[in-house]
Design brief:
Helices cover 38% and strands 13% of the residues. Helix 1 packs antiparallel against helix 12, helix 7 crosses helix 8 and helix 16 packs antiparallel against helix 17. Strands 1, 2, 3, 6, 9, 10 and 11 form a 7-stranded mixed sheet that branches. The protein folds into 2 domains: 173 residues, Periplasmic binding protein-like II (D-Maltodextrin-Binding Protein, domain 2); 210 residues, Periplasmic binding protein-like II (D-Maltodextrin-Binding Protein, domain 2, 3-Layer(aba) Sandwich), CATH 3.40.190. Strand 1, helix 1 and strand 2 form a beta-alpha-beta unit. It is globular and about 70 Å long. It is α/β, with parallel strands linked by helices.
């Protein structure tokens, strides 16, 4: 199963159980009446309740409802990421209150399939639209022959960098991690106030993606055998990568600031970091930050490689639409899950208004998307130059059904490493031991 953020059966119950949609006919999930965030265009049509937090999603919902007479979306923003997942977990435990369709990051899917909370969409024709999606994104939403969600957006990785800082220090754009380290040393020796980049101990999926680039495959898991799991978080690839970053940390070449704090956001745009190793949603994230250096010159380049002759592409993030087992009309809910971004008009709204990186092939592979110019990057066609190749090369990744716990433990171990309490190898060996113990305690059989 491909999946990134949740614990399996163990998300704490939230006090609030969100309910369905008022008006129209069946709202699904057997839920009580509540208000939609959006306006229902055809009040005579059956309604499908949706939880989602996508940027500019109101425009996408309106587009769908205006284009469909036989079904209407009743949308609620139930919180982002873990906030929504906790509410969904509560509804699973209580047996009611879940929406018909829910936005889930691909990395958490196995955390809910193991609880029999999601519908296998092959019964409703999902397998017939596989060729309309990026292969890696589809793999992340699937397990064996089952399809548990429809991909929406992805996070193929690249390198966003400050051309002005590089130029001032006489640095060429690095194409390998060896060159990246050399650039970091040159930058430090130049007297620049910037460091080459940040290596956050709480990077979670970011850190795991870096490990994957060196061949790390931390989990073996298949929803067909949900109580069996293979764990190898201390494999050769992970140890190679963490040892590399530990060296940069010890030499003072990178920062170790927690990611996505107010301080981190400021440093992203004020010249504290010369490089932002980012997913394809990173450009939109950068542009949304305040206090940006007005003299900054941002450009995009491919992610550095361990072997330039044999590049490996990795992904950080990505979300999907899944149908919950509580859906009142699963066939109609599946139509919404497949249809809301499964058309060019809806997906283009997501790209243009929400800065999503599409998994839907007709948009992803279009000339318009490839040649889209980004003013923030000086008019650079960053999709064509960087992210399309990264997306095409990504083959998918396997995550555990207790991924949130695994990430919490990874954060603890990397923090101990950067504090000098243990070396990188010991940190990963201790991570391995803690996850094996947890899996056994939760009733899993180790492969």
């Amino acid at each position: 199963m491909k999946a990134t953020y949740l614990a399996t059966a163990g998300i704490a119950a939230a006090a609030v159980v969100l309910t369905g949609c008022s008006g129209g006919s069946d709202s699904g999930g057997g839920s009580e009446a509540a208000s939609c965030t959006n306006t229902i265009v055809n009040t005579e049509a059956p309604q499908v309740t949706v939880w989602a937090w996508y940027p500019a999603f109101d425009q996408v919902v309106d587009q769908f409802n205006n284009a469909n007479d036989d079904v209407q979306i009743c949308w609620t923003n139930a919180g982002q990421g873990n906030d929504e997942y906790t509410k969904f977990s509560t509804s699973i435990e209580s047996g009611s209150g879940a929406p018909d369709v829910i936005q889930l990051e691909s990395e958490v899917l196995s955390s809910f399939t193991i609880r029999d909370a999601l519908v296998d969409l092959t019964e409703y024709g999902a397998d017939e639209v596989e060729d309309q999606y990026a292969a890696g994104a589809w793999e992340d939403a699937s397990s064996g022959d089952a399809v548990y969600a429809i991909p929406v957006d992805g996070g193929p990785m690249g390198m966003l960098y400050r051309q002005d800082i590089f130029d001032a220090a006489g640095i060429e754009v690095p194409t390998t991690w060896e060159e990246f380290e050399a650039a970091a040393r040159t930058l430090k020796e130049s007297g620049s106030e910037a460091v080459i980049a940040d290596f956050p101990t709480n990077g979670r999926a970011f850190n795991q993606a870096l490990f994957a680039q060196a061949g790390s495959e931390p989990f073996v898991y298949d929803s067909a055998n949900p109580q069996e799991i293979g764990i190898k978080v201390n494999d050769e690839g992970a140890k190679k990568v963490l040892d590399y970053w530990d060296g940069l940390v010890k030499d003072g070449l990178v920062a170790t600031d927690d990611a996505f704090t107010a301080d981190y956001n400021t440093k992203l745009v004020d010249g504290s970091y010369a490089v932002y190793l980012a997913a394809a949603w990173g450009p939109g994230y950068l542009q949304g930050l305040s206090d940006a250096d007005p003299e900054a010159i941002w450009r995009a380049a491919p992610l550095p490689q361990w072997d330039a002759a044999n590049p490996v592409q990795v992904n950080w993030g990505g979300s999907t639409f899944a149908v919950t087992e509580q859906a009142g009309d699963k066939e109609l809910a599946a139509k919404v899950a497949m249809g809301i971004f499964g058309n060019e008009e809806g997906m283009n709204l997501g790209v243009d208004a929400g800065a999503l990186f599409p998994s839907y092939a007709p948009v992803l592979e279009s000339d318009e998307f490839a040649t889209k110019e980004y003013e923030f990057f000086g008019g650079q066609q960053i999709n064509q130059d960087v992210f399309l190749d990264a997306a095409a090369g990504y083959e998918g990744a396997t995550f555990s059904p207790f991924q949130n716990y695994a990430y919490d433990q990874l954060t603890e171990q990397i923090y101990a490493m950067v504090q000098g309490e243990k070396d990188s190898g010991q940190a990963l060996d201790d991570l391995q031991a803690s996850l094996e113990q947890y899996a056994t305690e939760q009733g899993f059989t180790l492969k």
